[in-house]
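Record type: monomer structure entry
Structure origin: computed from sequence
Chain ID: A
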Amino acid sequence: MQHQHLNQFSNVVAIGGGHGLGRVLSALDFLGNRLTGIVATTDNGGSTGRLRAQQDCIAWGDLRNCLSQLAFRPSVGSQLFEYRFKGQTELSGHTLGNLMLLALDELCVRPLDAINLIRGMLKIEPQIIPMSEQPTHLVALGHDGEVVIGEVSVDEMTIPPVGLELEPLVRATTEASNAIKCADLILLGPGSFLTSIMPPLLVPEIANALAETKAQVIFIDNLIPESSPAGKWPIEDRMNWCHRAIGRNVINKVICHHEQVRLSSIINYFPLKHQQFPRLHDPVLLVDAISAVLRINTDITSIAS
């Protein structure tokens, strides 16, 4: 029964990055090829940052994370994909998945081809699409005119920025724009707001597609306030940032964590924490919450008609 209201959708799109998007995609993987993840590609930390600096490639880390969370487990393929090199060599700290994606990218015509080859190897049905196939950095503008470049530095800001942009400004992957145009349900978050959720919304073609959507749009909040500057903002402020980037108010519902269910016209609270891993959304509870707010919308639509 928990899948009933989600199975009515033919094209579900989830937008974000990091572990949060992977968690949502893995919770909804029963949708198969009706599910698409559009992934932020501005990360510049860790193994991904080193590869970007040396190879001028897109950020592979969040893409790898989403693929890994969707991979059938346990399998040799999924274990290899997440293997991280140890020791004191040049490979130390790199994940094999990042290196595989980079190598396949150099062999293929485009990064999306490399991702699709990995999807085939790991038997992943949902689509995984980078927000852009061109390298770009996240740039934050401070109150005093300060310019902060790179995701890692943006997350370390002590005072929230007044604006964000991409440098250089890149075009969206065509498949990402088309997925949003065809979507009947769109999910934003959870994840680091400034560095996972906002970057795709800064790509003009993605913002325009969202501005024109007739899909239901649900924002999924983090379980606990993040340590970045956005962690100090109420949910209404974060919604406003999304809407300014998109150019129109599109978010219909917000799902937040609370130990007891509390429903309202926009912001709805549900128990979402995993019992064993309290910093993670429980996939079953997350699906239940999404289904519940969709059921509310359906009931309201039925009454109105």
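Annotation 1: The chain has twelve helices and ten strands.
Annotation 2: The two ends are 25 Å apart (CA to CA).
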